[in-house]
Write a structure and sequence with these properties.
Strand content: 25-35%
Shape: elongated
Helix content: 25-40%
Number of helices: 4
Largest sheet: 6 strands, antiparallel
Radius of gyration: 37 Å
Distance between the termini: 94 Å
Mean pLDDT: 81
Low-confidence stretches: none
C-alpha cells in the first residue's frame, strides 16, 4: 500500500496513449494547493472591497470638508466686508474736532438711519433656482450685469423677475432702473441673463460696494436673494 500510485492516461486521436503515474502525496498536494489559491483569492477580493469602500468614504469626507472650507471662506469674506463697512460708516459719522479760536461749530447734521447689515447680506434660497457666474462691469456711469439662472426643478416651467439693487460703501441700498424685459424669465432649464443700466444719480464706481440680487417667482415671492461684493464679481 505504501507504493500505491495513480495512473493518468492522456489519449488523442492522432497520437499514442500517454501514461503518467502519480503518487497520492503529489495528488493531495496539488488539490491542497488549488484550495489554498482559492482561499487566497477570496481573501484578496475581500480586502480589496474593504479598501475600496474605505477609499470611497474618504473621498466623500474630503469633498464635504472642501465644501465646508469654501463656505467658511465666503463667511469670512462677508465678515471682513461688514467690518470695513462699519469702520467707514463710523469714520463718516464722526464729528470733526474743534479748532482753537475757530468760529462756533455748526449744528450737527441730522443722523442717517442705521445700516441694517442683516438686510444687506441676508441670503435666501428655496432650492428652486441656482445663480452662477455672476459678473458686473462698471464703465463711467453705466453698469453691465450678467449671470446664469438655472431652474433646479426642471419638470415645471419657472417664470418670474430678477431685481437688482446697488449697495454703496456707506451701506445705503439704491434701486436701479434696468430693462424689465432683460430681467424677466420663463425657463424650463437654463437662461443667461444680461442687462445694462445707468448708475443712480450721484453715484460712481468708487461709491459702489456691491450688488444685491433678488429672484422673485410669478407670485411676487422671493425665491432667491444674495449680495455680491463688486471686487469679487467685477469683470
Amino acid at each position: 500500500m505504501n507504493h500505491l500510485k495513480y495512473s493518468v492516461l492522456f489519449m488523442r486521436d492522432d497520437s499514442d496513449v500517454r501514461r503518467f503515474r502519480i503518487s497520492p502525496f503529489w495528488l493531495k498536494a496539488f488539490l491542497y494547493f488549488q484550495a489554498f489559491l482559492l482561499l487566497l483569492s477570496i481573501i484578496g477580493i475581500s480586502i480589496g472591497a474593504t479598501f475600496w469602500s474605505t477609499n470611497a468614504s474618504l473621498r466623500a469626507d474630503r469633498k464635504a470638508l472642501e465644501l465646508r472650507l469654501s463656505e467658511a471662506e465666503v463667511q469670512l469674506e462677508r465678515l471682513s466686508n461688514i467690518e470695513k463697512m462699519k469702520a467707514e460708516a463710523s469714520a463718516k459719522g464722526a464729528a470733526p474736532a474743534e479748532k482753537s479760536g475757530a468760529a462756533p461749530a455748526e449744528p450737527p447734521a441730522p443722523k442717517t438711519p442705521p445700516v441694517s447689515l442683516r438686510d444687506l447680506f441676508a441670503r435666501m434660497n428655496t432650492a428652486q433656482v441656482t445663480v452662477e457666474n455672476f459678473q458686473a462691469r462698471i464703465n463711467g456711469n453705466e453698469a453691465t450685469v450678467s449671470f446664469e439662472l438655472t431652474n433646479v426643478q426642471s419638470v415645471n416651467t419657472l417664470s418670474g423677475l430678477a431685481e437688482l439693487s446697488l449697495i454703496r460703501n456707506d451701506g445705503q441700498m439704491l434701486g436701479v432702473e434696468a430693462n424689465r424685459a432683460d430681467l424677466s424669465f420663463q425657463i424650463q432649464r437654463f437662461k443667461h441673463i444680461r442687462t445694462v443700466f445707468t448708475l443712480p444719480k450721484g453715484a460712481d464706481r468708487r461709491d459702489v460696494f456691491g450688488l444685491r440680487l433678488e429672484i422673485k417667482g410669478s407670485d411676487g415671492k422671493t425665491i432667491f436673494s444674495d449680495t455680491f461684493p463688486l471686487r469679487d464679481v467685477a469683470s
